[in-house]
Request: fold
Amino acid sequence: MPFDASSLSLITVEILTAALGLAVLVLGVIAPGRGRYGLAGVTVLGLIGITGVAISNWGANGSLISGMYLVDNYAAFWKITFLVSAALVVLGSMRYVDNLGSTQKEYYGILTLATLGMMVMASAGDFITLYMGLELMTISFVILVCLPSTNPRPVEAGIKYILLAGMSSAVLLYGLSLIYGLTGEIKIYEVARAVASGDVSPALILGTVLLVAGLGFKISAVPFHMWSPDVYEGAPTPITAFLAVGSKAASFALVIRIFIGALPGIWQHWALVVAILSAVTIIVGNLVAIPQDNIKRLLAYSSIAQAGYIMVGLVTATEAGVKGIMFYVFLYIFATVGAFTVAGYFYNKTGSDKIKDYAGLSQRSPLMAAVMLVSMLSMAGIPPLAGFVGKFYLFSTIVSDYLWLAFVGLIMSMVSVYYYLRVALVMYRDEPNDPSPIKLTSPVAITLIVTLVATLFIGISPGPLSEVINSAAHSFFIQ
Amino acid sequence: MSFPVLPVILLAPVAAAVVLLFIPKEEHRLIKSVAALGTFVSLFLTLVIYFNYNQDVGGLQFVTQRDWIKDLGVTLFFAVDGISLPMVLLTNLIGFCAIFASWNISNRPREFFILLLILITGVMGTFIAHDLFIFLLFYEVVVIPIYIMVVIWGSSKRVTKEYAGMKLTIYLLIGSGFLLVGVIALFVKSVGVLGAPDMSFSALAEAGAQLSNFDQIWLFALMLFGFGSLISMWPFHSWSPDGYAGAPTAVSMIHAGVLKKIGGYGLIKIAVVMLPLGAQFWAPWMAVLGIAGVAYAAFGALAQKDLKYVVGYSSVSHMGYVIIAVACLDVIGLNGAVANMFAHGIMAALFFSMIGFLYEKTHTRWMPDMGGLGRQTPKLAAGFMLAALASLGLPGLVTFVPEFTIFVGIFSKYGGLAVIGIAGIIITALYALRAGAHTLFGPPRPEYDHLEDIKGPELVPLVVLGFVLVVGGVLPSLLFDMINSGVVPLHAEISNVLQLGGNL
Amino acid sequence: MVTISLTHYVMLSAILFSIGLFGVLAKKNAVSVLICIELMLNAVNINFIAFSKYITPADFMGQIFAIFVITVAAAEVGVGLAIIIAIYRNNLPVDLDEIDWLKW
Amino acid sequence: METCIYNVIAFYMLAAVILGSAVMIVAVRNIVHSVLFLAACFISMAGIYLLLDAVYLAIIQVLIYAGAVCIMIIFGIMLIRRADMKESNLFNKQTKLAAGVVAMTLAVYGILAGKTAWTDVTSNVPVPADSLDKIGGLLLSQYVIPFEVAALLLTVALIGAIMLAREVKADGDN
Amino acid sequence: MLVEFAMHHAWLVPLIPALSFLIIVFLTRPFEKLTAFLSVSFMAISCFFASLAAYGVFNNHELAEHPLVYNFFNWLSIGIPGANELQINLGVQLDPTSAMMLFMVSFVATFIQLYSVGYMKGDPGFSTFFSYVSLFAASMLLLVISSNLLEMFVAWEGVGLCSYLLIGFYSHKISAREAAKKAFVTCRVADFGLLLGILGLVITFGTLDIMELNDKINNFKEYTSYGTLTLLAVLVFIGPIAKSGQFPLHVWLPDAMEGPTPVSALIHAATMVVAGVYLVARMMFLFDAVPAAMNMVAITGGFTALFAALIAITQTEIKRILAYSTVSQLGYMMLALGVGSLTASMFHMWTHAFFKALMFLAAGSVIHAVHTPNVWKMGGIVKKMPVTSWTFVVGGLAISGIPPFAGFWSKDEILVATMNSGHYVLYAMGAFTAFLTAFYMWRLIFLAFYGKEKPENHPHESPWTMCVPLVVLAVGATVGGFFGMPWNNMWAHWIFFGEPHHAGHVAWGAMISSVALAVAGIYLAYRLYLKDTEKVKARQLAEKYQFWYQLSFNKFYIDEIFLWFNHTVVDGSAKLMYLFDIYVVDGIVNGLGGFARLTGDGLRVLQTGSMQNYALVFFLGVLAVTILMAFTGPSAAGLVLGGVM
Reply:
């Protein structure tokens, strides 16, 4: 059926983001030399504006082009998450980007378009839109990872990322093609119906495996996680933050859409596999993080471990599971952005990522130390912070039939406290080698305060957020 | 009382901590007095409610309840009953004295007192909360301040303070990890049984009783592991001696005095009440582990040369009594357990504060090179002696009657084990007196002549805790009537489930 | 084999995919890895078009999907080559074995 | 299904060419030769598409892949200006291991794909003739969102490629 | 009327010294004069009350049958009333025995405090000394009047604490510190047994009230078997073994002499050590119901008497000799109880308190004057310190059992009781101990007070505050015996167990033989130590029986055995446990930590950095997932296997 203009209103958020992206790109070219700082301001204001728009039309459920593009509360929630994380990343990285040199003009543009890619992924109704969103996000991230191209590190990260991403998208495509071949459908909910009705053919198993691999790469589940520590360490810190936050969140939105949306029919097949993958991810993520001495690499492994915790929500494929994932991703975003902004700003000021150079940070700048500590402990799941509630939701879904996974998850999250506290130890106990206080620029300070307040607020009173997410998770299942 | 007294008690220290944020770093005296004021307010209010808690009605009083997380059924449920009120009183007493015990902290006092106040609030929260989620919230919030305090202000003697702090933290967290799994499983099963999710103790107890025998057993095992590691039950005790030796005085006071009791309190109020059949199944094991703890740690304490290690091991030994008392699952046993927790708390706090002062003055805790301080610092010696005598359970001090009650309780149920337990009092006498005699009596050493005795604010722990020690010993009914009013209804709840044998 | 059925095409695409995969895993030169990725994507295209012909001949779902895959592949090659040139300019070795500064 | 024999022969010939050139791409030592084989492979693939009545796609395959992509790769290689092209396309250390893994993967996929009874899902409705304008119509009606996203994707790729590959001017006007 | 008041408020007697303790500790610590006055006056008031109460009890006879019992404070009540409920309330039980003890303790304590005012003058810890002594008096008196076993146990430990503090009073001496610790721990070991006994009683009979226990034990069949009752009796008896210095656990008493002499007089002669005997007397009904336990008490008593006497004859320090003589006399009292005669035991306790306190105080004055405890270094003190010496001689006469003096009547009572109850062997041991007692006592007197003066020490008479108590106690030592003379045996009517003692029948034979033994002992001592001035004969005897002499001098090496046991077994196992804890339990914990770190390092190395390794791992992962999914799915296994075949 032809595309009717009336339903255009449903995708206003996407259109606005695309417009913002292109506008920033153009501005970058037109604006005179010094005007470049304005770009960041424009981007942040734009993103915040769009978030407002997204929040305002929260309830508008509907699907475009007969199911090709689903705009339901579920997708709306994810879009708000992406916009918030994008805004925070841009806000936190203003000074960082200045010394990226001349490429700074296109940085904000591509970043916004990456956010657009995520949004498309979140509300994609069929395989093609899903794939296009995924590729838009990946390509823009590849480019962002390689900035500044004069420095060998990011470029090395870039080459690794593009080749591995290309290979994984090929694998993902192969899986999609097999499923398309079996069911003759590419719309997610039709595929669900076809899979539920038809019997389980070996090709379907193969297809599911390839999907697991392709998407596992994106959310850095263990056997497919090898790329993320190198890319996280190589890439510039704000981009690493956005990668760890945006790309992972979008991939989880996709994973839910595909596994719980399209393949519930063969749930009992992939449930145990996902459980085992999640357990292995948690164990490897936490254990390898222990000996790390570079803060970005440590945060990379801890974010792999967080991916493991989030995968726990997938195992039972119930509404509670989806709710657990969305809740945990939302609070994970604030914790990760907080931690990476501190790392980025510290790198900006002192030029080092080594944990031992963080000595005496609490005396040099109490806010940075506090934010780093709070974010890390929230990831570890220490009570007053958001992580605890998130883990409670997640593990309560699987306790009845996958008890061993609950054990692995909780014990490993307590082991993770070990390497988080080692960083806290360095920050709080040691004397700084140069005691000059680190002055925070206002945008970075704002980001840090926002993340700190958000983590504490969600931890202490998770009530309101869990209501919102309930409605979002519920809308996922009605179609 | 309409006035929400419990939240005020809970938040007074936090308010003081917030005020401290704005006081400049150099004002040492002002910082300490604000901190003292904070704890004094909550101590005073606790005493007020302690004396007008009417015991014949019993049950939960001074209740403040507000919905918190609807879909998990979590309500902010603060209340106090016969068992939790003494514990709250204990927390405030020790908290108040801990402030004064660390009166001459010199480096970064502001951060120290902020963390200390947060620690006190966290510990108090666990005793007030009657909602499992809030209990867990407070149960784990305490761990990080302790780590930071041990790492910055600790002292590394046999093991570095980083090792001690890390071991303390990770050990307790892994214990609480197991507990968390147990709690989540219980919660999920209770939703099945009750219909609506409800996290309050009473609802979970009602649901827990209806669980199958097998479920109750493995759930109780998890909780036993979690609470056991906190109350330093035998195989999981290795964190407590190192932890206390590494920690600064105030932290070891609060940790030995109160934090361990959360384990015991949790064991009674949560594990035993909610999973009576599990408790019945594991009771013999707990008894054996408890007694192993008593004998093992008593001998361990005997072999120590460092004062803090002696008290560390002795607290493990005393907690062994509590565990076996809980294992009796009868009124007298439970009464004895709660009372012993209170008594040991007071004793351990006094002992640690005295050792703290001793360490500040002589800069050593190594018994062989101490001696004859009785003459040079008489008040400190009196306090030290009082604590040593209390630790060996001298009648007339608060520790005797609870221990006697425990002996009566366990003697009837576990005869053989009880004899070993009671033999423990001999070993306890040996190491307590050895600690006391070696430091206080004997020829005075010239190098300690310049020491001036404890005076002014440093006297507060001795006076306050000493007073409670003696009054509690001479008039035990003050403590026991309150605890009895808490234990009797609790025991009635358990026994009718045990009689029914639970529905398999 | 009298007639050409769908299985033949699937087999062809699987073999081509495996050759591409072997190239990605085994070749030292970054460009050849890029080429092999293109091969894998083409293998997927064969799959799509074969399914479009045999399974959903009425609407061209498979073919449209193939079109998009081609566009993405092209974009990817472009960016890939740009990065390889950037690597060359940073006088890093183009052999993938030597690019291992970021490790552990 | 094409029953006449020509199609069968054509399929097998094209398949042989595709697989042969693919193997040569991987095997040959000179990078430029492998690119040439790549072009050959793309063209034979276009043939396969014709067999599958995907006329429009065959044209696109030839135009974009055989034409643009191969030329671009050649330009890329030239820019890198390796001294000797002879040794430019060697195998790395983990070749044997890779071969083993690939063989196993192929075996597993072959079995799984082969085992599936594709035939019964096949419907034998003929492909409509005027596929070109039908696809064009669909692209802009049914698949308009992926189309626009593809457009943005290409823009980003374009800008990104330029950014990364351009010569950094000495002064670097930041 | 005042008597009635005193009887019904007997708990005032222990309360007054407790008050004086508190006042001294908190208020009058720095002013020595005031403290002394306060403490002695309070003690006197409480002694006055005690005598009133004793007089009241003495008058109405039926108290012996059913004593006056009333509770004055509900100490503790736990559990559900009716069900398994523990109810303990502090009460007073007044009967002839406790009345006698009440009077005796307060009387002796008052005079000893008066004596120690002089003795302790100038000592820096003067007021602390008086606070400890008044605390001791308070807990001893509480022990005497308590009606409840747990109340008695509390007082029992309180007394133990005070003896620890007082023995360790000269805390700068290492020997004092060790002696104090030894005393406390030995008593603690015995308290373990007593505590077990009390627990057994409370669990089998449900109450700790002595009167209720009395009724229940009389028909114990319905509560428990005979075996358990014997066990309980033995356990309860373990407590007094240490407290009253009976055989195995007597080691702490001689070392307790480290404390100031008034302490030794008050605690280790008159009052505390007697507490054990008093407890057994109090629980007579329990032991009576179990003849086996009675015999055990008797045998322990008899053996301790003989054993201590054998050691006393070779000791050289004046206070040690007196200490061993106390142990021996306590053995006598236990023997009396063992053979069933409460009257004899209490009577001997009464008399012993007087003359032993007297002798200790006198010894104190002598040491104060001569500055050395060694008997051989003293000599001819009688000329310089007439009052002290004569009072000591009176004490010596009393203890060795010379007729008019108190010791003779009470010891004779015991020997007669042993004879009547048919324990002939014990009678022989008792008689021989009487002979030894006379010998070592007079050996002491001849060596210390008579013989030629040693030039280096120049003794001088002690001030009046120290002499008055000596004289009063000497009078007590002489007059004390007349209460229990066999003719008009007032004592028997007053304190008895079972049927009253049939007065009037006098066992002349036993009386005469015991006097003869006493005189023989004195004569032997005279021959050896006074007549031949250089003590040649004594030394020859010592060389001849070298082995026995060394054995007795080194107290049969019991101390060494205990030290060895304490050092190797207790400390050894403590070290073993500690090492086990560090290396095994800690080892496991650190091991786990290390293991986690090890795996962390291992996995970390997998991250080789080369992109193609990652791709390889990626596809190995894909393979693994395929196999995993193929074989773990419910129906897939058959499908794939079917497919593969």
User: Anything to note?
Assistant: Chain C has three helices and no strands.
